[in-house]
Amino acid sequence: MSETNPAATAPVTADAAPHRYTAAMAAEIEARWQDFWDAEGTYAAPNPEGDLAGDPELVARPKKFIMDMFPYPSGAGLHVGHPLGYIATDVYARFQRMTGHNVLHTLGFDAFGLPAEQYAVQTGTHPRVSTEANMENMKSQLRRLGLGHDKRRSFATIDPEYYKWTQWIFLQIFNSWYDEEARKARPIAELVAQFASGERALPQGRSWNELTEAERADVLGEYRLAYASDAPVNWCPGLGTVLANEEVTADGRSERGNFPVFKSKLRQWNMRITAYADRLLEDLDALDWPEAIKLQQRNWIGRSEGARVDFPIDGERITVFTTRPDTLFGATYMVLAPEHPLVEKFTPDAWPEGTHQAWTGGHATPAEAVAAYRAQAAAKSDVERQAEAKDKTGVFIGAYATNPVNGERIPVFVADYVLMGYGTGAIMAVPAHDTRDFAFARAFELPIRCVVEPTDGRGTDTSTWEEAFASYDAKIVNSSGEGVSLDGLGVVDAKARITEWLERTGTGEGTVNFRLRDWLFSRQRYWGEPFPIVYDEDGVAHALPESMLPLELPEVEDYSPRTFDPDDADTRPETPLSRNEDWVNVTLDLGDGPKKYRRETNTMPNWAGSCWYELRYLDPHNGERLVDPEIEQYWMGPREGLPHGGVDLYVGGAEHAVLHLLYARFWSKVLFDLGHVSSAEPFHKLFNQGMIQAYVYRDSRGIAVPAAEVEERDGAYYYQGEKVSRLLGKMGKSLKNAVTPDEICAEYGADTLRLYEMAMGPLDVSRPWDTRAVVGQFRLLQRLWRNVVDEDSGEVTVVDAEPDEDTLRALHKAIDGVRGDLEGMRFNTAIAKVTELNNHLTKSGGPIPRSVAEPLVLMIAPLAPHVAEELWRRLGHTDSVVHRDFPVADPAYVVDETVTCVVQIKGKVKARLEVAPSISDEELEKAALADEKVVAALGGAGIRKVVVRAPKLVNIVPA
């Protein structure tokens, strides 16, 4: 650490109090200390090699890895709501350094994504140009806040040296399969060896040597953890790309841009995250996450136990998954999702004789009916399709399946309330015991058979029912067939019996189903990571060797997808990369001589880079491997209390409960299985900060008006003379209520902004911004400054005298309370305790003892680091407060001298005694019985019993 003294260069102003703490002084102090920290590398966190290797003291120091969720560098810059979490993690990291920890705290940028590309489409500016400009602006804003990041470790996902390893991880996933028996990912080469040796059988009894390269690729594609397939996708013409389920809103529109989303079939890359569904559920229990976030992940994964049942049809079968196999005898029709791949196969050329007119949708042939209905369903979101609409829609496909338990022929329909995204995309409909099936059966005049005896007295004659009867606590009826009878059994026993029968007869089996779908991983955009995949002339996908990474984005003339109609479901994508023929068509030697290949022209989704960035923070300049194993083990390896390892503290918004967190957990588990990391989970402790809100003012048209120009008069609000409404909501540029940190820093200084944001309330609770209240924290810093520095002379006023008893107690209670609050991330109450101590010193009137002033400065250092550094230097120290030990309270002064003991007679308070906290039960009883108020209240009556709870309670029971 340098011996230079930045405090010596502080300016002297010419006002009445030339050394008063003002906004101008704060700005000068803050800029100077920020320069000092950068020059000295104050926040550099040593790794277990190099810096740490030769320093026993550093090696013995406990470590803390503290992270914020990746920021996206927006062109709008930061408003005061954005830094809430960054300031909180900075305060916590500073406290951890002061309590002896080696702290890794840094910040990078999640810089791929649609906003920069959409700006490029509009202006022709390369996305990298605008993104890098936005990053520089954001870095400047963050630096001004005095955040203690290890800048050596920062990066952006758009850096080729970073996304080289994103591509490398993709190839690890592509070259892996999930072994259900071992419950882990294994290299695909091991699966190939099993096929080649005959250890694992191939479909149709063929041998591995008989298969062509394309046939082998198809077989392996059924196992690979990253695979391409033709499947129904969420196609968003307005964005020119497909979207994952998680990126589609409840009303069937894109989360970004609010464009309509359609169901369409495209060939896309997918990640087989479903293979990890059980482990993703199980390992949640060991994570220190908010229960609400765990619940969201559990619900999204959606594990349910039931049975797979095969319904024969035309020599083949339709497979369904049901959680109620006990109701199989009540299945009177089947429904396929409109996108189900078997719909066309089983749709005949003509309607079967006797087809009910209501089933045809008014169409001449089944094919026409199905095609029309599919087009209608494609325009609806999944939420709309599953809504409890009054009118149920669907069409008969013209074919019948067979119910395996009773041999009945039952009609097969397509209907939009069945989704391909859950189960098998087909259901057996039991209308008597399912609300949607009941409404559909009534609409299409289908049989409704009761197989679960109603407990509400309605009887089993369904012709009189007005709604379905659903229960897990009733007896099974009307459920006997050849070889099996469920009549009289409860639901649990009936499930077990029918499942055993299904397995014995080969018509089904007990199984587990998940709501979770495989992760759609392709995007038809330019600004994303290129896939390290090429295709040969037979269309077989080949992985690029590591020596060819990174595969960098080429230049293109046009960043937009092909011209599209945002409302046209039939529009198809033409990716920007596909237009660069020189890049797309290449001759490569992949180990078997030069051959012609075609590159993949989709790009990865913006989630790819944030799936593993915690690992790159550990070893950001390693060009030879993803991360050094020793370094990863040191920062993230499993240890006591962290059975799966991971980041010690991860802070960010609750809106990432599913997408980012689930994806990152999946990647972490694959890397763990393959032996690349020791941590099976990326983030051990998760904390969701609240939101800083602001008032939104709207005129009579509902248009937001500038909040800063609104006037309040007699409890009403006016903009340019017109009355406007006020509602508390989000803060943002579009709502015209954003306040930038630059504005507050200019008016009060960064330390004041930091204190105000931390003092507004509990960190996990949303709170309203009030610029007028910021001055309260500014005055705290001014009073602190005056308690140490003379505002006229600039001289330090502390003295070497001993503090009095009251001050010692105030000091040590503050130390004890602030230490506990900072450890528990209760920053608002920590500030309140610092304020209370500072006010005590202010009221004392005389010079402050050095032995009190120095701990006070150290206590506020994590919260207001610039002014703390300045005062620390002025107090004569040459080292930085950043690595100073946090004060430790003396227990003798933390305990009160006396406590109040309540004396009760017959449960009523008769006296209060001031006693020593250490008083014994016997001493307290004697004191209580001797008190004159107690004696008077007893009036000479005898005492039957005395209950003593020293030091706070005595209860006397008279005889």
Describe this structure in words.
There is one protein chain. With 959 residues, this protein is of the alpha+beta class. Among the domains are: 1-40 and 748-895, Isoleucyl-tRNA Synthetase, Domain 1 (Orthogonal Bundle); 303-514, Valyl/Leucyl/Isoleucyl-tRNA synthetase, editing domain (Isoleucyl-tRNA Synthetase, domain 2), CATH 3.90.740.10; 693-729, no CATH class; 896-958, Ubiquitin-like (UB roll) (Roll). α23 packs antiparallel against α24 (827-844). The termini are far apart.
Give a nutshell description of this structure:
By secondary structure, the protein is of the alpha+beta class.
Structural features:
29 helices; disordered N terminus; Isoleucyl-tRNA Synthetase, Domain 1; 959 residues; six-stranded mixed beta sheet; alpha+beta; Isoleucyl-tRNA Synthetase, domain 2
- The CATH homologous superfamily of the domain at 303-514 corresponds to Valyl/Leucyl/Isoleucyl-tRNA synthetase, editing domain
Please give the largest β-sheet: 6 strands, mixed
What sort of overall outline do the alpha carbons produce when their principal axes are compared? globular
User: What is the residue-averaged pLDDT?
Assistant: 92
Helix % is 25-40%
CATH fold-type name of the domain at 303-514: Isoleucyl-tRNA Synthetase, domain 2
By DSSP, the count of extended strands is: 33
- In CATH, what is the class of the domain at 303-514? Alpha Beta
CA-based gyration radius: 35 Å
**CATH architectural arrangement of the domain at 303-514:** Alpha-Beta Complex
Strand content: 15-25%
